[in-house]
Amino acid sequence: MNKYREFDNYLKEFPTKDGYFGDFGGAYLPEELARAFRETDEAYEAICHSAQFINELRRIRKEFQGRPTPVYHCERLSRLFGNCQIYLKREDLNHTGAHKLNHCMGEGLLAKFMGKKKLIAETGAGQHGVALATAAAYFGLECDIYMGEVDIAKQHPNVIRMKMLGANVIPVTKGLKTLKEAVDAAFEAYLNEYDRAIYCIGSALGPHPFPKIVRDFQAIIGIEARDQFKEMTGMLPDAIAASVGGGSNSIGMFVPFLSDPVEIYGVEPLGRGSKPGDHAATMKFGTRGRLHGFDSYVLQDESGEAMPVYSIASGLDYPGVGPEHAYLRDSGRVRYEAISDEEAMEAFFYLSRYEGIIPAIESAHAVAFAMKYARENRFGSILVSLSGRGDKDIDYVYEKYGCGERFFDKSDR
Q1: Taking a C-beta distance cutoff of 8 angstroms, is the pair 384, 367 a contact?
Q2: Among residues 182, 208, 234, which one ends one of the domains?
């Protein structure tokens, strides 16, 4: 008997009309923004069941994004650890090099339907910024991207790409100058322009309806992966895994598998260790709180203020997590594990050397977990969402790690 059948009607039940996944979610906003978010919700509900909208999005995914992306068997990497087989859902082959375009093209289409003229967003690793700049160029919209100065320095190739696509990249100089501060700045800008702009949140978080909207657009990852894996092997994987910062690629991967007899793992950044400020492992160390207008788990101090966070992966260094992930953790359906910088970088170089795939550092966290899973399980299979490619990271990685020689001894070469 499948013990996960309680999730058969999950998408109809969650979120509630008020945007809650159990105790998590909601929309805690100034009245001006609350009205704008309600407008967005009403517009999305009006078109998400429209055959015209769905068919146009399908055409964009096929002809512009290059979907479906393939599932790939890592045969050489799997052999290193025994007989447990590692597979990748290749979102790095999606146009712009990551999963982010899945929701950005949907949000751009929604903005056109609403008559908006501008897209506003934050970005950390830059992949959301590039994807949104791409959507803006495709739909003929203005685009403002807020990015912390620290991330601008780390992700220079993506900054150039955004500018080449016509976006305004606006440096954020407050606080730690990373993703949280970029979100703060983007919200503030949206407050002044909501009449002509739409805020396109970069992950499955924020006030309702964005966790729902981003999840629905990202679910294409898991829908494709599930069908592709069954076609390749005749069965479902034993486990699936994806990296979790805010949670967009992971929620898109997880939801189509919720009612299947499959183990599900979210992989967070342990960074340099367990001390506050050395990691961004919200599920492991966070407590229930409120951040950026929604309830979830948050890395916070005793007064409820978000604490400084760190990850080598710019797209994962956020002090909270999407509300749907918080619910899935508390329900027991999804397990959340943490991977250190060192483990992620080992996986970065192993995937590069053994499979010819240079992953994004964010994605390398999930690959590292798959390597650990394969070491601990002699048989079976694990399917990983490879959320993005590593072009954006190679300058930073080379400066800090060279070409990864220290991760390999002579017997590996």
Answers
A1: yes
A2: 208
Q: CA–CA distance from 167 to each of 132, 164, 242 (Å)?
A: 9, 7, 29
Higher pLDDT, 158 or 89: 89
Of residues 73, 84, 99, 143, which has the active-site annotation? Answer: 99
Provide mean pLDDT across the span 162-191: 92
Buried b (16+ CB within 10 A) or exposed e, 319-339: bbbbbbbbbbbeeebbebbbb
H-type helices in 258-307, by residue range? 282-285
CA distance 313 to 316: 6
How far apart (Å, rounded) are the C-alpha atoms in residues 250 and 255? 9
Q: What is the pLDDT of residue 413?
A: 43
Q: What is the pLDDT of residues 127-174, one digit of tens each?
A: 899 999 999 999 999 999 999 999 999 888 899 999 999 999 999 999
**What pLDDT, on the 0 to 100 scale, is given for residue 1?**
63
Q: Which residue has the tokens 């082959």?
A: 93
Contact 261, 4 (CB under 8 A): yes
- Of the candidates 48, 49, 73, 74, the residue annotated as catalytic is 74
Check if 74 is active-site. Answer: yes
Q: What percent of the chain lies above the pLDDT cut of 70?
A: 99
Q: Residue 293 belongs to a domain with what CATH number?
A: 3.40.50.1100
Same domain, 204 and 220: no
Cβ of 39: how many Cβ atoms within 10 Å?
14
